[in-house]
Automatic annotation (TrEMBL):
InterPro entries: Beta-PGM-like, HAD-like_sf, HAD-SF_hydro_IA, HAD_sf, PGP-like_dom2. NCBIfam families: HAD-SF-IA-v1, HAD-SF-IA-v3. It comes from the Bacteria. This is HAD superfamily hydrolase (TIGR01509 family). It holds the Pfam family Hydrolase.
Length: 219
């Protein structure tokens, strides 16, 4: 086992609670096109990729509306409202602690570039993050390993010198397949996140895991 030289952060649900805004914007744009989603339970599309959301809602939307135009409207509205976003408890403190300890940090997201950039601006952590990998930067997003492999390659580190912080099975699967250590975050006490090696419920518990000295003789 090697010392952790870099951390690759997921963003949505890990550093920032963006799901309520994603849902609000989806409802808002659909209503503009005459589609009422009030019969659907809250968080009905949580974690669902937008192409699958489109397929589920297409029959409710005007026949002439194209998927690309619908998605562009959602992204545009999300970016307009991104200033409402707040970091999850402990997120900024942990990023500062790791940066001060010399740990390199990047972000790896399954969102497109414009959404990733809006989220990072809302977090105000661009000076602490080396770079970010978005869905637009890879051929195959999470749960495939490509996003995390791309991050390791760009940093010039071996994947086993990095730890990924994830809140989803797809993300944890991606990072594990890339060869990284994976720490899960379940802030609402949702149990263990597979396939993470450890799941924490407070981000403030993370530095102890990342900065923990290796056992004598471990390399």
């Amino acid at each position: 086992m090697k010392a952790i030289r870099a951390v690759a952060w997921d963003i949505d649900g890990t550093l920032i609670d963006s799901e309520p805004l994603h849902e609000a914007v989806l409802v808002e744009v659909c209503e503009l096109h005459g589609a009422d989603l009030s019969d659907l339970p809250q968080n009905h599309f949580r974690g669902v990729h937008m192409p699958d959301v489109w397929k589920a809602l297409k029959s409710r939307l005007p026949e002439g509306l194209e998927e690309a135009a619908w998605l562009d409207a959602i992204v545009e509205r999300y970016i307009e409202r991104a200033g409402e976003l707040q970091p999850l408890p402990g997120a900024i403190e942990v990023i500062e602690t790791l940066a001060d300890a010399g740990v390199r940090q990047v972000c790896v997201s399954n969102s497109n570039r414009s959404v990733v950039d809006a989220n990072l601006r809302a977090l105000a952590i661009l000076d602490r993050i080396d770079f970010s990998i978005s869905l637009d930067d890879v051929v195959a997003g999470k749960p495939e390993p490509e996003p995390y492999l791309a991050a390791a390659q760009r940093l010039g580190f071996s994947p086993d010198e990095m730890a990924a912080i994830e809140d989803s099975v797809a993300g944890a699967t991606s990072a594990r397949a890339a060869g990284m250590r994976v720490f899960g975050i379940a802030p609402h006490g949702d149990g263990h996140l597979e396939p993470a090696e450890t799941t924490i419920h407070r981000l403030l518990d993370l530095p102890e895991l990342i900065l923990r000295p290796l056992p004598l003789g471990a390399r």
